[in-house]
Predict the structure.
Amino acid sequence: MKRLVFAALTLGATLAAGQSSGFKSDWEREQEARDWRELEVTLPALPKGELIEFFVSAASSFRFFVDPQSLSVGNDGVVRYTLVARSPSGAENVSYEGMRCSTASYKIYALGHGSNWTRAQGDWKTIQPKSVQRWHEALSSEYLCPNRIPVSSVAQAVEHLRLGGHPDFRRKY
C-alpha cells in the first residue's frame, strides 16, 4: 500500500512538473487563444543606426535586416521589430511588424516612408513557408519564435540574430 501511495504521489509530482515546464493541454491553448488581447502598439523611431542582417534564402537577391533598437517582447506573446528589406540596387522597404509566435502569424503595424511612419490597417496573417518570399518564416522559426515560443527577452532576440539563429536552428556552414 505504501508503494502505491508513493507511486501516486510521484506521478502527481511528475505531472505538476510537466505542466510548469510549458506543457499545455488543447483546452488550455484554446482558452488562452480566446482570452488573448493584443497590447497597444507605440511606433519606434525609424532605423538610424546599426541593423542586424539575417539570412533568409540563397534564392533571394534581397538582404534582410532587423533594427535592434526597435525589438520588444510583449506580455501578449508578440515579438515586435522593424524589418528592412534591401534590394540589390539599394532600395529599401521598411516596416514595423509584430510576430505572434503561438499562432505563427504576423502583422504589419506601419510602413516607413522617408522620415515618417504610415500606419497600416492590416490583420494578422498566417506565416506561410515559401521558397522565395520566406523572410517571415525564417525570422519566426529560426530567430524569434523557435518552436512557436517567443524569445524570452530582447537580448535573446539580438543574440539569435547576431549568431545566425536559435541554437537548434543555426546553419552549419
